[in-house]
């Protein structure tokens, strides 16, 4: 993705409409549950029916917000955002929610996803429009500012024109809106809160955290508006083919989230079981690369009838390895992140399950750590197929040059990571594990076939 500027990538969004409640505080705790979706910056905007206020900074939520700045965000409506670190643009002006002024009044805008026709949309803006940030999100917000008619009309017109991935929470001084691109690439769910209150969030774990009741996913192309008149729903481009990102199931979502009632934990567990059926091996123990591969490793161990052990302890107080965009920091990050549990590894034939290999930075370090801890054999099992193609729809997945599986065979990768054997889950096994239909998912990073990606992206989609 290094050559593609202005990416916002994966993020967490939340929106609250809860009369009689402190909506900024609820947004804080909802975002707290979505911190895994982005650790670069975070922000909350809140409205009390009259004024819209916001606070945002670089860093983790717990460091940004305190009693004092939360108290200033008074009101019963809020939207919040946690931003994911991607290449470039790591500056506070890109933190969200974005605050915009329009003839309809101020609004706050929080986006998860990635547009694929940002330039086309930017060209439709009046020449006088100045963009403060460098993100596709700001272009979308400006399209709303420059639109005509009601807020609903403006958002409808945006959905008719914007391509790519976008799950968005937006609030004005007295209304909450949430909408999802017509392909439903990024998740966004709806819940109720207390008497007449509503919550939207990227993942259902955020609803569970604040005590909201999960109702359903927003449909692809759905716009909802919550106001004193209740909830209204409008569908835009309902005929588009659904394409929920498979990587949400593989890696990104929290395992305690559900998508349309399908548990992410159970999907990962089934991926592990299937992996054991596809790539069995004589071994003594099964372990995970914590945390995202734990359900998969437990599934593998259950199917293989081998003990599941903790082979690595993760330092939970440092961020994900991808937090630093620089390659040398990524490899150092692995050293800082894990220590082996020698007692579980010494003289053992170890199956180590991870959810994915992207650039191939993490896995060789893990294999080496396990060997240093005394493992007599290290068999690497990956609960996704090889990642062969970049993502244009929001996951920081690297370029063709960086993706190890785009440039090497499985046997070459095995040699590079120093494993005794290597097995990747099949595409069919992966799809079956999610309980979803194959043609309802975006499998772009695995197959190179992307939904809704216009020609200029498609031309980049072939390896050079
Ligand atoms: P790599 O070291 O580049 O091969 O990355 C693979 C490791 O990073 C695996 O342990 C994954 O769990 C994790 N991972 C995969 N995708 C991402 C992502 N988009 N952001 C952060 N970590 C990731």
Notes on the structure:
The chain is an alpha+beta fold and 464 residues long. It folds into two domains: 11-240, Glutamine Phosphoribosylpyrophosphate, subunit 1, domain 1 (4-Layer Sandwich), CATH 3.60.20; 265-437, Rossmann fold, CATH 3.40.50.2020. It is built from 18 helices and 23 strands. The strands form six sheets. Strands 3-2-4-1-10-9-11 form a seven-stranded antiparallel beta sheet. Helix 5 packs across helix 6 and helix 9 runs antiparallel to helix 16. The longest helix has 15 residues, at 264-278. Bound molecules: adenosine monophosphate (AMP). Adenosine monophosphate (AMP) binds at residues 251, 289, 292, 320-322, 354-363, 395-396.
List descriptors:
464 residues, six-stranded antiparallel sheet, Glutamine Phosphoribosylpyrophosphate, subunit 1, domain 1, single chain, 23 strands, Rossmann fold, alpha+beta, disordered N terminus
């Amino acid at each position: 993705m290094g050559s593609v500027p202005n990416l916002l990538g994966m993020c967490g969004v939340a929106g609250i409409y809860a009369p009689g409640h402190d909506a900024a505080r609820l947004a804080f705790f909802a975002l707290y549950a979505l911190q895994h979706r982005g650790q670069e910056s975070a922000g909350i905007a809140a409205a009390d029916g009259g004024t819209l206020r916001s606070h945002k900074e670089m860093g983790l939520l717990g460091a940004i917000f305190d009693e004092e700045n939360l108290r200033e965000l008074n009101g019963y409506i809020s939207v919040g955002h946690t931003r994911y670190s991607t290449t470039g643009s790591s500056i506070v002006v890109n933190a969200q929610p974005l605050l915009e002024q329009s003839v309809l009044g101020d609004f706050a805008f929080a986006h998860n996803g990635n547009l694929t026709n940002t330039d086309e949309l930017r060209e439709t803006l009046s020449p006088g429009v100045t963009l403060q940030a460098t993100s596709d999100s700001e272009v979308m917000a400006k399209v709303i500012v420059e639109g005509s008619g009601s807020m609903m009309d403006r958002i409808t017109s945006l959905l008719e024109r914007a391509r790519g991935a976008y799950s968005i929470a937006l609030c004005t001084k007295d209304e909450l809106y949430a909408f999802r691109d017509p392909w439903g690439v990024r998740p966004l769910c709806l819940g109720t809160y207390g008497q007449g209150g509503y919550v939207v969030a990227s993942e259902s774990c955020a609803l569970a955290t604040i005590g909201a009741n999960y109702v359903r996913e927003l449909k692809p192309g759905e716009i909802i508006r919550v106001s004193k008149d209740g909830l209204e729903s409008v569908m835009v481009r309902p005929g588009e083919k659904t394409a929920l990102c498979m990587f949400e199931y593989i890696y990104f979502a929290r395992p305690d989230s559900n998508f349309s009632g399908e548990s992410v934990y159970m999907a990962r567990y089934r991926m592990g079981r299937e992996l054991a059926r596809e790539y069995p091996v004589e071994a003594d123990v099964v372990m995970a690369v914590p945390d995202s591969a734990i359900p998969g490793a437990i599934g593998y161990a259950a199917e293989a009838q081998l003990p599941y052990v903790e082979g690595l302890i993760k330092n939970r107080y440092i961020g994900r390895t991808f937090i630093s965009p620089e390659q040398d920091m990524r490899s150092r990050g692995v050293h800082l992140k894990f220590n082996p549990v020698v007692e579980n590894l010494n003289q053992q034939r170890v199956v180590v399950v991870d959810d994915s290999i992207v650039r191939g930075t993490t896995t060789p370090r893990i294999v080496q750590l396990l060997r240093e801890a005394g493992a007599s054999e290290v068999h690497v099992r990956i609960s996704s197929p090889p990642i062969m193609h970049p993502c244009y729809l929001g996951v920081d997945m690297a370029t063709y040059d960086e993706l190890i599986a785009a440039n090497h065979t499985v046997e070459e990768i095995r040699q590079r990571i120093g494993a005794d054997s290597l097995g990747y889950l099949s595409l069919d096994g992966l799809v079956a594990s999610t309980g979803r239909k194959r043609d309802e998912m975006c499998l772009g990073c695995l197959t190179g076939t992307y939904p809704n990606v216009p020609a200029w992206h498609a031309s980049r989609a072939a390896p050079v």
